[in-house]
Amino acid sequence: MPLSPSDFRDLVCFYPATLNEPVRSPAFVYVGVILESLAKETLVESLWTFIAQEYPLEHDQLYIARRLREGLLKASVLVGFPRGINGLAALHRAVSESSPAIRVTLEQDTSLRIHVPKSEREARGKAFFAEVYAQHAPRVLQNLAKISGGDLSEFAVTSVYGDLMAETRILNEKETGLLEFAACLASRAIPQAKGHMFGSRNLGNGKEEIEAVVRIVDRLEEKLGLDVKARSGEEWSFLEKLRDW
Length: 245
Description:
Helices cover 68% and strands 0% of the residues. It is an all-alpha fold. The two termini are 35 Å apart.
């Protein structure tokens, strides 16, 4: 089912900061990440078409495009590398069609990560991981190591966090933390959604911001006609804690 401009407008307006600073709002990123997580990443093209029509100034489009691209990249490790490729390809197609000058600039961008030494990736990965999981970080790393012969803990710190999440020049820590929750919630990775709901709060997101992501997921599932089970039962009870925050 296609999404209309009014659908996208409603979705991004769920996020509280959109009304005051629409261009700088991370809501566009969360909508794109959630589409990727719902296996509807081709709809990123429609999302960009809406953005290009709503914000015709080139510098605004470039700012949003870089942030959306970064969000789709970061989410790829959470919801599947092929989904990430498809989402990024959809964004590139849409930008090429509606904003060719922006496409040229984006293609000239160079990697933010390629020149970061492994020692720095490890250090910043450990620091970011510790911010997300707080006092639980050592236990989480131990569990990852235990179930994978030591590889998942290394991969999480050096690659997932050191390479991807801890690169905060485009999406900051707070925005990245809520992105992680959005991806896990939409893809129904329930234990990880629970961990990242608390993690996003540890990184500075408040009740309204976290609830906005839940509302965006709910609305997209409804609008896209996805046959998903209601989030009920003990396994989803962690969402009730939002009421008290």
